[in-house]
Amino acid sequence: MLVAAAAYATEHTILSAGRSVTLAAAFVIIVTIMLASTRVARHAEVLAVKVGDPYGTMILTLSAVLVEVVVLAIMMQAAASPTLVRDTIYAAVMLDINGIIGLAALIGGLRHGEQPYNDDSSRTYSVMILTAMGISMIVPEFVPRQSWQFYSGFTIGAMIALYTLFLRLQVGQHSYFFSYAYPRADRSGPMEKHPEADSPALPSVLILVVGIALIGALAEVMSVMLNAGLSGSGAPPALMAVIVAAISAAPEILTAMRAALANRMQSVVNIAMGASLSTVILTVPVMEAIALYTGQPFVMAMTPVQTVMVAITLVVAAINLNDGMTNAIEGMTHFILFATFVMLTLIGL
Questions:
Q1: Other CB atoms closer than 10 Å to residue 135's CB: what's the count?
Q2: Sequence-distant (≥ 6) Cβ neighbours of residue 91 within 8 angstroms
Q3: Residues facing 326 on adjacent strands
Q4: What digits encode the pLDDT tens for the residues 69-80?
């Protein structure tokens, strides 16, 4: 709150002080937003522990996606970039699947060897991510410009239908797909008992609401400063999209790493794959609805490089996450793909 108040009070002074000062201020705001999103995730985790899986994981992923949608919607007003939504979703999938699963499986495998999980969950997530990204980010390349409103409306309906059925199965008759019965000896990890699991739920709910509103306020100033600081600097075009994706992924990374070190790979799979699916299947209809309302279409079709990277990622995930066990080698393959994504971003692809 103090940073937000200071940012709004000194915004014009900072913008007139030059690029270096503007970028430094933007960096401070980005760090503040990440800290705020981590607090939001912490209280989402309190609620998640109270209700248990799969509802708990759903709360965690939805809170992260809500932060991403709020930041993305605000930044789009200032950036006016037609590819920001596409690049953010692409970056989020690379961060979640290759970054989170890769690093978690790598450090967890080095510590525990093979780590078990329910392979039904990984298969379900993978096929839904492939379907959702195919419909919303590959097929649009072939849709005539004059028909974009019709296809956009179809995409909104398809995403809502997919997620509605998925949500019903996740919390209903197929909820066992997304849980794993760990041996009794493995139930001492930090994911099993949160220190505030017995605290009232209302404070956590209030902090979630206030935290997301505060993130939105900070994002508005951040977007202005980033646009001013990066304009004409030669920075990679997708840098702002990566920043948005990193803000939402920051708390997920911390939660997933704790789960991996506690030998609870099912939580890692649920968080990483669930966040990827939620990012695509929830962000797309919201942003498509905005496009229909404003009459200004976004560029949703991925570039050839992005399509190849997503295809490789999902093929590798389908192979690695198909036997109910992860290890350090599988983690390293995903982490190398994440490093490739970073390199391609730095060189502007």
A1: 19
A2: 238, 241, 242, 244, 245, 246, 341, 345
A3: 115
A4: 788 778 776 666
